[in-house]
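Project outcomes to date are best conveyed with an example. Our students and postdoctoral researchers have been running inverse folding experiments weekly, and each run begins with a structure described purely in tokens. The record below, which covers 160 residues, was selected by the lab manager from last quarter's runs and is presented without edits.
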């Protein structure tokens, strides 16, 4: 049963991140909020790449799409691409200092939002523009607190 140790912590962290997405926020401010589910997803991919991977990225992306009201699968495609990149390079990203990790997380959030925006444009849901990249800076700023909080949880509950 060691393999399932702490799974509830991982699921609860995703549930909390998705709950924050579901909170009512004025539309004008919504574009400046960090992408909480993606930050939590990227942390768990870096921390436990054997347990959290592409399938988890797809599920979290679809849940985010449902909560956002965007076409189901748009964020899932972007999050899957970003997680694939992280899975290939997680050992290197772990060695980066916090500023470099923050830049990488910003790049990964940008990949997610770019893929989502491109799919929405193809479906005729959105106009072309660069406002979709606004959460990237906020996600970079909030990477450190998210990382430290989840790291403390992982160590306290001995999630393996």
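After processing, the design step wrote out the following sequence:
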């Amino acid at each position: 049963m060691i393999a399932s140790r702490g799974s509830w912590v991982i699921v609860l962290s995703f549930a909390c991140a998705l709950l924050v997405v579901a909170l009512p926020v004025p539309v004008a401010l919504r574009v400046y909020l960090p992408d909480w589910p993606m930050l939590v997803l990227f942390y768990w991919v870096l921390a436990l790449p054997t347990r959290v991977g592409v399938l988890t990225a797809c599920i979290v992306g679809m849940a985010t799409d449902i909560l956002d009201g965007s076409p189901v699968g748009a964020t899932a495609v972007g999050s899957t691409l970003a997680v694939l990149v992280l899975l290939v390079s997680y050992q290197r990203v772990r060695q980066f200092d916090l500023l470099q990790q923050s830049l990488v997380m910003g790049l990964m959030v940008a990949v997610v939002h770019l893929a989502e925006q491109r799919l929405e444009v193809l479906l005729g849901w959105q106009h072309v523009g660069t406002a979709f990249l606004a959460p990237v800076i906020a996600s970079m700023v909030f990477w450190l607190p998210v990382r430290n909080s989840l790291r403390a949880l992982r160590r306290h509950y001995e999630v393996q």
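The chain is about 75% helix and 0% strand. The chain has a mean pLDDT of 91. The training component of this project remains on track.
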